[in-house]
Design goal:
The chain has one domain. α5 packs antiparallel against α10 and α10 packs antiparallel against α11. The chain is mostly helical. The protein is built from 11 helices and no strands. The chain is flat and about 65 Å long. The two termini are about 15 Å apart.
């Protein structure tokens, strides 16, 4: 019971903090539009424009695209960088649409590789740990081959590692096409946000730079609070059944 209270309090606090941070970034954007800040920013605007032009001068290069795909593939097994960092990198180098396509393909590469790894070698330590808890075991082993709703929720939780989830769903034999569709669609808002942060990283006081951050924090906060609410309701219903 105490663990449930701690978990609920921690999730509520995290969700509320995400929403507060979203509000803080709204305030920062309004503050950044002031004449004083714009005057200060103008001193560095020329340097940022020069950096932006230098990056754009790289142009489309198949080797760079392949290198980004290779980084996503390596990330599947070696945690040398985060998915947001790789998505921002693509956004810095390419225009929005090509960068989005590159990031979706790169993320899909990760999904495929770790799913196949789990199918071949099992769910790993994360799966063993989850199976020790009756609630998580019932939720994930839904009808014996995986729960699509849990997959969607796990992909939506901010900061939750992608690879262990992929490995678990590969190990339990979840249908591959459904796994890919749910995983990509549920993570797509994050890919959009990370990519556009990269696209406008050299214009950090603009609305296109602030907006993805605000959306990302808002969605993260809402998803955490919603998941916490669903878990609490599930726990409450089970307690009533035992009475």
């Amino acid at each position: 019971m105490k663990n449930d209270v701690k978990r609920s309090s921690a999730m509520s606090f995290t969700g509320v903090m995400m929403l507060i941070l979203a509000g803080v970034f709204v305030g920062l954007y309004i503050f950044a539009a002031s004449d004083e800040i714009q005057l200060w920013y103008s001193k560095y605007e020329e340097m940022l424009l020069w950096l932006d032009n230098r990056v754009l001068a790289i142009g489309y290069n198949e080797l760079i695209v392949l290198a980004i795909f290779a980084l996503f593939a390596i990330k599947t097994f070696i945690p040398f960088a985060t998915i947001p960092a790789l998505c921002v990198l693509s956004g810095m180098v390419y225009d929005p649409l090509p960068a989005l396509i590159i990031n979706v393909i790169g993320y899909s590469i990760m999904l495929v590789l770790r799913y196949m790894f789990g199918k071949r070698f099992g769910g790993g330590n994360a799966y063993k740990l989850l199976r020790k808890n009756s609630l998580s075991r019932r939720l994930i082993d839904y009808q014996g081959n995986g729960n699509p709703w849990v997959l969607f929720i796990l992909r939506s939780i901010p900061g939750l590692p992608t690879n262990p989830v992929s490995q678990i769903y590969g190990a339990i034999g979840f249908k591959f096409s459904k796994y890919m569709l749910i995983s990509v669609l549920s993570f797509l808002p994050k890919i959009f946000s990370y990519t556009f942060i990269g696209v406008y990283v050299f214009d950090p006081l603009s609305l296109p730079f602030f907006l993805p951050i605000i959306i990302l924090l808002t969605l993260s906060g809402i998803s955490i609070l919603t998941i916490n609410l669903l878990i609490n309701r599930y726990k409450k219903s089970k307690s009533l059944e035992r009475m």
